[in-house]
Amino acid sequence: MAKQYETVIGLEVHVELATKTKIFCGCSTAFGGAPNTHTCPVCTGMPGSLPVLNKQVVEYAMGIGLATHCDITRVCKFDRKNYFYPDNPQNYQISQLYQPIARNGYMEIAVGDTKKKVRIHEMHMEEDAGKLVHDEWDDTSLVDFNRSGVPLVEIVSEPDMRSSEEVIAYLEKLRTIIQYLGASDCKLQEGSMRADVNLSVREVGTQEFGTRTEMKNLNSFKAIARAIEGERERQIELIEEGKSVIQETRRWDDNKESSHAMRSKEDAQDYRYFPEPDLVPIVIDDEWIEKIKEKQPEFRDEKLERYKKEFDIPQYDAEILTESKHMADIFEETTAICGKPKKVSNWLMVETMRLLKEHSMEPEDISFSPANLAKLIGLTEDGTINSSVAKEVFEQVFEKNVDPESYVEEHGLKTVNDEGALEEVLKEVIAKNPKAIADYKGGKEKALGALVGQTMKAMKGKANPGMVNEKLREMLN
């Protein structure tokens, strides 16, 4: 019988924090910018420059720690991690090894109907490195220090995950928590959330872990899932052939859907950690922790339950609406204005999601105001515009955040409720379509739909469909 294997996975997730300035200096953390323009002597490692800690970094890290059930370390310190690499200007990175800011947490994840806890070993604060830009044409490498000194938290899980589905569930939940806190935008494609995957396989029923590899360069959830499947298969193949898995760091190439070795980790690298002499320890008291707890938002899990009870909307809709805090805020604010949660939910679930997909946008990118969506719902509800005009107006609201009331007025889009005008148009439509009239009178209900369509077209879509339907039947019968 073929052997059964189990995958054992732990993650190291780096998250860039959404502070305006870097962790130890006043330079901007904005993404982009011409190379080396967001820099100063501190973040380019000039001799004699001294770091000064950004308090907001500590508060974001505490918020993430509390939201993931971690213990906050009351006296935490920074350490120097010494290594040479061209994008590391000081030849050391200021990080935390001995007393990280948070430890021993967990997150509950769900895959299908199965729930499980994934333990968090620790979370520490550190500075990001610069970025090497390789110029293949000149065969040179240039360094951009804009990212150097951008604040990071690294969240290290225990090896509690057993499949790519569990890994994605863990990452999605972590991303949602951090976005709800406003601590980071967690955009994988911009590198503000990065995950390294530690993976090993073992025979089902074995207690000992196999030899693990670490995979880097994963910048989308799909790439992470593919890399896990690819690496699992590679390791099983080696074991089946009687070969050994080598402990090493591997780089995933998503285009080729394969990985290659970067460096071996036979011996753990000696980073010669020692306490950072230029920074004092951070003392965190109960009062500070309470302040951070009071600022914590209502998280997605709580929102989900409340939406179902308070607004009586289905589980599926509530899940889509709460996936992004920005979307949830728009839903709540619009509902507060117009008092029609079901209608608001429908506009967000159908038309908004359609337009986001068409424009390749994320829910975070929605720029229309809740007030304008509420006005549009009002115009539809009181019959000022019909549903097809409403969709047309909504596209303008979505793209340019126009005021729907002014837009409808300026473009003459109000529904025509003038019975006299409608009768005139109907007489013309009836005269032009003898076949459809005969079909309808012969019992073909569908023929009426064609006549309604012709009428709407003649009235440039501004007639009241209900009224057209009623009047047509009246005239034909």
Automatic annotation (TrEMBL):
Gene3D superfamilies: 1.10.10.410, GatB domain, N-terminal subdomain (1.10.150.380)
PROSITE patterns assigned to the protein according to its UniProt record, in alphabetical order: GATB (PS01234)
Catalytic activity: L-glutamyl-tRNA(Gln) + L-glutamine + ATP + H2O = L-glutaminyl-tRNA(Gln) + L-glutamate + ADP + phosphate + H(+); L-aspartyl-tRNA(Asn) + L-glutamine + ATP + H2O = L-asparaginyl-tRNA(Asn) + L-glutamate + ADP + phosphate + 2 H(+)
Subunit structure: Heterotrimer of A, B and C subunits.
PANTHER family assigned to the protein according to its UniProt record, in alphabetical order: GLUTAMYL-TRNA GLN AMIDOTRANSFERASE SUBUNIT B MITOCHONDRIAL AND PROKARYOTIC PET112-RELATED, GLUTAMYL-TRNA(GLN) AMIDOTRANSFERASE SUBUNIT B, MITOCHONDRIAL
UniProt similarity note: Belongs to the GatB/GatE family. GatB subfamily.
Protein name in the entry: Aspartyl/glutamyl-tRNA(Asn/Gln) amidotransferase subunit B
